[in-house]
Amino acid sequence: MSAYxxxxxxxxxxxxxxxxxxxxxxxxxxxxxxxxxxxxxxAFKDTIDLFVxxxxxxxxxxxxxxxxxxxxxxxxxxxxxxxxxxxxxxxPGKVISQEYIxxxxxxCLEMHVGAxxxxxxxxxxxxxxxxxxxxxxxxxxxERVGAEVVECACVIELPELKGRERLNGKPLYVLVEYLEx
Length: 181
What we know:
Elements: H1 3-6, H2 10-17, E1 19-22, E2 30-33, H3 35-38, H4 41-55, E3 62-65, H5 71-78, E4 81-84, E5 95-102, E6 105-112, E7 121-129, H6 133-144, E8 148-157, E9 172-177
Parallel strand pairs: 3-4, 3-7, 7-8, 8-9
Antiparallel strand pairs: 1-2, 5-6
Helix pairs in contact: 2-4, 4-5
């Protein structure tokens, strides 16, 4: 499911604030830069509000995310805890890990042991879905400890990279599809 199909009037403002940077970080990549979205308080708030409206009242107790931009304000607004998912050696204490494959190699996500309990309802938030590797690893971590991943939520989707197909049927909610320069 995607918000852009419903054409909420706030989506236009969000779309126009995402900058596309050609050939970054390497040739052939059309980088979707959300830092320009964050510079506009209305567009940033609209982004958070759209996710909050979707998940408020849905009995979500965990918002898990690799980044710290969108996850924490969504978690606070819906009354859920925020669980950071980090690269190796970024979290102190005991962690569980999940390796995943990228188009150019391997990576790993970690989560604190005990951060999520069996039976909790979770959403996974990320700024962008490309190949789906990060979201799959996040879902695997949460499901390994017994959480129910209700949905994945992203600001931007790059549909040509078919990341949605790797989610094994898990619902994906996105606000904006790939933007042309």
